[in-house]
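Could you help me review a protein record that somebody else here produced? What it holds is a sequence and that sequence's fold in token form. I need someone to confirm that the token line plausibly describes how this chain folds. Take the sequence as given and treat only the tokens as open to question. This is what I was given:
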Amino acid sequence: MWSGYSTRDAAQLAGLTESAVRSCARAGLLSDGAGGLPPRLSFQDLAVLKSVKQLAAGGVSWRRIRRELTELRRRAPSSAGLSALSFAALGRHVVVRDGSTLWQADSGQMLFDFGLPAAGGEVAPMPIRREAPAPEPALGLTADQWFDRGSELEEEDPAAAIEAYRRALHLRPDCTETLINLGRLHAEGSAVEQAAEYFSRAIELDPRDATAVYNLGVVAQDVGKDEEAIQLYQRALELDPALAEAHYNLATIFDRTGDPRAAIRHIHEYRKLTRP
């Protein structure tokens, strides 16, 4: 009897990476079954994931999608959830259509509808007036200033953030934090090979950087290299035992590969570390 989609099946059907599906589950955007062990996603979860994919394609950053949909989930009736709502991207934000009403997901602010397609149609950004481009920033910025600029741009313009981080990296090639941020942004854009390159370079510079090791594990898991991912997650936990996400991802791998005792052990550790 069908009991739901696995995270890997849901990722393939929604056109997302498996790590993006797990991230949505951990953020509470999906049903309770998506965060259980074994994770089981419903048709409604799949609808939410497809909407998330459309929002990302519409120019909304992953960080903003998670933040605004988390706030929306808090506002949405528990019996309905996000699958009952129709989303669109507007000016790099998430907006919701409820019948003839349009409102901003995170704030609930009402908006004027100037042409967003009706629910069930193709989701696309509302046409908006764009200001003339700002002058090119001075090229004499320091590595720290380019890094700060990248951090500020991540939500509004991930592509511009990547360019700012690249400039910072050119000025300071040994900055592991810049390499990790570049790797993360590429991973969120499904450029997994480039992401792995950046994480690997960070590890070469600092083999004890738990974040870089963990992120390289995420990339390995996304491309189906479970054994490599297990080794990287375990190494990350040796370096930082409080890295809850590594326990969560290990639980999903062990559950899928038929080691329920290891899966339960890691999900218990994850819950202990994330308990309020």
Q: What stands out?
A: Residues 174-274 form a domain with the Serine Threonine Protein Phosphatase 5, Tetratricopeptide repeat fold (CATH 1.25.40.10).
